[in-house]
Amino acid sequence: MAFNDDSFIREVNEELRSDQMKGVWRRFGRYIVVVAILIVVGTAGKVLYDYWDDNRSSGTGDQFLAAMKLADENKNDEALAALDKLEKEGHGAYPVLARMRAATVQVQKGDTAAAIAAFNEIGKDNAVPAAVRDAAKMRAGWLLIENGTYEQVSAAIEAMAVPGNAFRHSAREALGLAAYKAGNMAQARQWFQSIVDDTDSPRNVANRAHMMLDLITASGKAPAAQG
Length: 227
What we know:
The chain is an all-alpha fold.
């Protein structure tokens, strides 16, 4: 799906001007999550690629690529079986990569609960490199926006919403969206404002944060930030 961030924001602003606030989250919320999670997946993919590149093992690599091909073809059960074998018998980085990919396949299958559990398990496994653990926690956090509570999202990723963490922008956005969805506008405002105030925030993330701050102000459920 082609998605233009600026045109999307303009459309939401038009919705605001027409005073149709009641349906804004219902109409746009899922798209906001989809756009943002693509960035999370891209960042996590870079982390996983670097990890793979440092731990290449050609024989197991061929098996991993074959499993990915099965997943790309929506042969999910076959892909999960191949990934399970890699997790148990693979070498180098591949057991960890197989676990991450298997969790993604669970999402593809529609078993979000199993995917969240798998990502959470990876995120807590101290045998897994820290960068990969963080990537897994972020995936769990984003899935929990639509499938859990604000408290669950916070437990998964709030520790990463701190200065210097590579995932802080995505973590803050996820926390803001989870708070917004839960109706906690004051908390949502704090998270989105932290994105706006961070000069290192990517432009598209900052744009979405500005849009959400506009939505919160228009709702009248949280006071505007004093500046």
